[in-house]
Amino acid sequence: MNKNVNPKQNRSKGRANRQLLPMLLGAAVVILTGVLVWVSSDSQASENTELDALPNYTDVKGKIVVDGLKYEKQPHLGNSEAKVKVIEFADFKCPACKQWTEAYLDRFIKDYVDTGKVEFFFMNFAFIDRDSYLAASAGEAIYHQSNEKFWEYLHKLYANQGDESTIWATPKFILPFVKDNMEGIDYSRFESDIKNHTYMYDVKEDFKIAGSYGVNGTPKFMVNGELLPDSSYEGLAAAVDAQLNEAGQ
């Protein structure tokens, strides 16, 4: 037994330890909070940078004159001599566009395009959000290198489509996506076109033309210049068949 221990000193040390513990915990909370705020701020800054890199229709320079559908400027499939011209108006962020493409496009191509009855066109109606414009611009950039590669881009981008309510088709996504998934294009040229918003005029022109013909959502279809009231495959096929009958085919 240690006869030199002072009970009062022990009680004093105990009280000091109990007082020190909350101070240490408080300091730890302050440090953790600071770290979380820093991480959140850094993440927000990165997100803002991505948003700043997205194009906007107000950035487009040059007057747009709506004077026809301009079939010659659109990605296309099929015989240019076909009696029936079908345009699909679409937004790459649109879930219904993805669903229609996956469910019906190959069937429509087999029944009408490959048989020489229809020439099929794609026209942008990028309206959901700012990254819709970027996804459309990327499609235009690829189309201006290769019409065939545009359709590959369409299928692959729909297969990797993000949530409609989020901003996902950013340069941070689009550039590596194309680099990793699209062979046979000049990637340096593509990257330059995306960063310089080379084809935003074309995207806005499509948007203005489509709107002037009554397009207000996606997907929408036009058969020989007539906008269809719905987007069903049955409605599209019926409209095409009617035009073919009228043309004696």
Automatic annotation (TrEMBL):
<dbReference type="GO" id="GO:0016491">
    <property type="term" value="F:oxidoreductase activity"/>
</dbReference>
<dbReference type="InterPro" id="IPR012336">
    <property type="entry name" value="Thioredoxin-like_fold"/>
</dbReference>
<keyword id="KW-0560">Oxidoreductase</keyword>
<keyword id="KW-0676">Redox-active center</keyword>
<keyword id="KW-0812">Transmembrane</keyword>
<dbReference type="Pfam" id="PF13462">
    <property type="entry name" value="Thioredoxin_4"/>
</dbReference>
<feature type="domain" description="Thioredoxin">
    <location>
        <begin position="45"/>
        <end position="245"/>
    </location>
</feature>
<comment type="similarity">
    <text>Belongs to the thioredoxin family. DsbA subfamily.</text>
</comment>
<keyword id="KW-1015">Disulfide bond</keyword>
<dbReference type="InterPro" id="IPR013766">
    <property type="entry name" value="Thioredoxin_domain"/>
</dbReference>
<dbReference type="InterPro" id="IPR036249">
    <property type="entry name" value="Thioredoxin-like_sf"/>
</dbReference>
<keyword id="KW-0732">Signal</keyword>
<protein>
    <submittedName>
        <fullName>Thioredoxin</fullName>
    </submittedName>
</protein>
<keyword id="KW-1133">Transmembrane helix</keyword>
<keyword id="KW-0472">Membrane</keyword>
<feature type="transmembrane region" description="Helical">
    <location>
        <begin position="20"/>
        <end position="39"/>
    </location>
</feature>
